Structures are given as C-alpha cells and as structure tokens.
Amino acid sequence: MIGLVSSEWLRLRSRRLVKVLAGLALLGIVVAVTIAAVQSDQAVQPLRAADLPDIVRGTAFIAILIGLVIGASAVGASWQAGTITTILSWEPRRIRVALVRAAVVALGTLVLVAALLGIFVALFFFATSVRGVSSTPPGWGSDVAGVVARGAALAAAGSIIGGAIAMIGRNTAAALGAVFVYLVVFEGILRGLRPGLGRFLLGDNIAAVMSPRGLEIEDSILTPGRAAVVVATYALGLLAVATASFRLRDVQ
To answer: What is the gyration radius of the CA atoms in the chain, in angstroms?
Structure first.
C-alpha cells in the first residue's frame, strides 16, 4: 500500500502538465494583481481588501477546471502510454489501484489549489496596503479562509470527476470533452426547460457551495451544505462507476 501511494504521488508530482498548470496559474495571479494595483485609483475606485472573499469566490470554476485537467490527465495518460499494465503487474488489485490514484490526485490538487489561492490572497492584500484600502470588517479572515478551503475542495472534487471519466473513456480528451458537453450543453438545456432542476445539477451546486448564503432556485434556497453533498455525490458516484468498469474490463 505504501509503495503504491508513493508511486502515485511521484507520478503526479513528476507530470509536466501539473508543473505547467501551476506555473501558468502563478503567472496569471501575478499579472492580474499587478494590473489591478496599477489601475487602482484611491480617490475613485481603489482596491479593497474587504472585497477579497467575493473575488476568490469568482475563481471557483477556474479551480474546478484545474482539478478536472489534472485528474483527467493523471488517469488518461496512463491508458494512452500503456503504463497502467505495468502498474497492475506488481499491484494486481484493481480497486486499490483506482482508489489510491483518485485519493492521491485529489489530495495533490487540494494542496496545489489551496497554495495558489493563498498566494493570490497574500499578493492582493499586499497590493491593497500599497495602492488601496486594506481595512477589513470583523470576521474577514475566517471568511477568506473558508472561501479558499471551499475552492480547494471543489478542485479536488473536480479532479475525481475528471479522473473517473478518463478511467471510463480511457482518454484525457474524452474526459474533458464529456464534462464540457455535460456542463455547457446538457445542463444548459435542462436548466432552460426546467429551472427547478438546478438544485440537482452540478454547475448550480458548485456555485451554491461558494456562495455565502446559497443559491436561490425558483422559490427555494440551495444551501452550501446541501450543494456540497450533491457535488460529493457526483464525484463519488462517478468514481464508483469508474472503479467497477476498471475492475471488469480488459486493460489490453
């Protein structure tokens, strides 16, 4: 078990895509904060540290996207390169392989996204102290920490979803394409025909998780807690289907 965990962690850490994504995200953070600081006008519209929780909430879908890409790539690459056969030659218990990989990828994504959001928060607060208003209301720190934690958790869920679909389709591009079609086309059609179904759709629940008061859908409120359960159900349900598929199908 320890050897499998170490192997999966080394494989994830060594992936070039993960390093490229982290580098691009860091570059984007630095550029975005720099532009915001340069354009800040203390007399008209200054940067405000008090706005930081809402700004971080707006990054939820970016965090999900990072998780989807990392998860789909981590699993899909093994099928495309044929290394999954090598792994099974020394660890034939397929359920263990699937679950350990999902856990390692989810944890790695959680740490990476939390670190990126933490860097963004620190740089933004520094920018407000130099060219904006750094005063914050009571409870601001816990609010920011909570938003960062939710964003990182959503990214981890996204990695499980991306990895599960890649396990079923045995392809990275297939996983990303399937998620795009589902979120943009299928959910969009359902939302247009029956708005009340939004409480069961992944996109609406992701938005509700990041919202401080939940999401209003027709005459009801989709609370962050209930939304988190729905997102977790999507992730774990897909993981269960992918694990069953991996256990039963031929790897050749």
So the answer is: 20
